Amino acid sequence: MNNVTLSDSVTCYLQRNRIRVVTKHDLIQKGMMMTFSQRILVLMVFMSLPYQTFATEYLYLASGNTITVKAIDQDTGTLRDYQTVKLDGTGPIAFSPDHSFLYIVIQTPRSKRQQFIATYTIGNDGKLTFQQKSAINMPSEYVQADATGQYLIGSHYGKGKMSVWKLTKGVYEGETVQEFTLEQQAHSTVFSKDNHYILVPATGPNKVFQMTFDEKTGRVAFNNPAFARGPKIDARQPRHLVFNRKLNIAYTTQERMNPGVATWEWNPENGVLNLLENIVTTNDHVKSITTADLHITPDNQFLYISNRDDKNKRDSIIGFRIDPKNGRLSLIKHFPSEHVPRSFCISQSGTYLYVAGKGDAKLGVYQIHPDTGELEKITQYKTGANPIWVTTLVK
């Protein structure tokens, strides 16, 4: 342990040149491993700060008609069962910007054909408390809260629409601000970093729709132009989108024909994308392989995408190194993963990666090498049926 650093929300220590989140319990347990002067330093910090300064990271998994909350061991990446919340169905998850609320789309069995968004408060201990469940008009494959905490947005794949829902003191109470028609297979809805625009990748049309967003009213409208067209050859059909943490760059998974990932230049002044590069990750025209999710490490060094194989189980997480100057990607490696990795996430410390295998109902735990970005598998857990969403949060 080389140093102790603190932020407003977490307590950390520097190990192997990487900041790691620790808890009050962790600091006590590590006391025997420190020198006398280090123990004195930690004791002084510990005594001078309130209890809530010491943070814990939790993993939230939607599977098997439950949200399972698990505590993350920051030394090993392993998980401890913490809370199980029963639901009528599971779907995508989002957090409020202040991390006080969790929102989950509930899609009931086909016999009922009802959809809801449920709101839960998140306690300082990471546990969920139910607040309200309110209906929405269509199934939603993605949900995200805006930066003000006043609105939720979601995409409707089959209907080719997106919705804006009003939040009242952080809770969704059933009010729809707007339903906006795009094209079928609109797959995700992502706010720009300044909260002024919304981007909606759509696989079938091979477009990323570009929307303006009024955070005072919650209303959306087509930008000019209304969409950025995906590439005509190689990796096409943009599905999920994430912004580079430091540069005016965005990335999309390209779901198929052939699958891969695209890099886009983002103009924050006019809310328009421009395609920079298109990388094919599977070259042999195997129709069963598609890409799905993507995430960037907190230090902005590495991007990972999930690569699904419905038939032959050549599933993987594909790693890329991000050029710090221009945001372009260079391939690291394909890392074999759980079957059909529809959703995965990266821990807030950037040390671990968690993969939900929808096809085999398993959750894989991987360590991210801080220098190379390579993944090393640590362990694997069984999940409920159809693990559809996994994410983490520090409290």
Would you kindly provide a brief summary of this structure?
With about 400 residues, this protein is mostly beta strands. It has 2 helices and 31 strands.
DSSP summary, beta strand count: 31
Strand arrangement within the widest β-sheet reads 6-5-4-31
Query: What is the CATH C level class of the largest domain, in words?
Result: Mainly Beta
Query: Structural class from helices and strands?
Result: mainly beta
Please compute the radius of gyration using only Cα atoms: 21 Å
> Which percent range fits the helix content?
under 10%
Total tally of structural domains: 2
Structural write-up:
This protein has 395 residues and is mainly beta. It folds into two domains: 45 residues, no CATH class; 252 residues, YVTN repeat-like/Quinoprotein amine dehydrogenase (Methylamine Dehydrogenase, Chain H, 7 Propeller). The chain is 5% helix and 53% strand. The chain is built from two helices and 31 strands. The strands form eight sheets. A four-stranded antiparallel β-sheet has the order 6-5-4-31, with no helix packed on it. A four-stranded antiparallel β-sheet has the order 7-8-9-10, with no helix packed on it. Strands 11-12-13-14 form a four-stranded antiparallel β-sheet, with no helix packed on it. A hairpin with a 5-residue loop joins strand 15 and strand 16. The protein is globular, with a radius of gyration of 21 Å. The protein starts with a strand and ends with a strand.
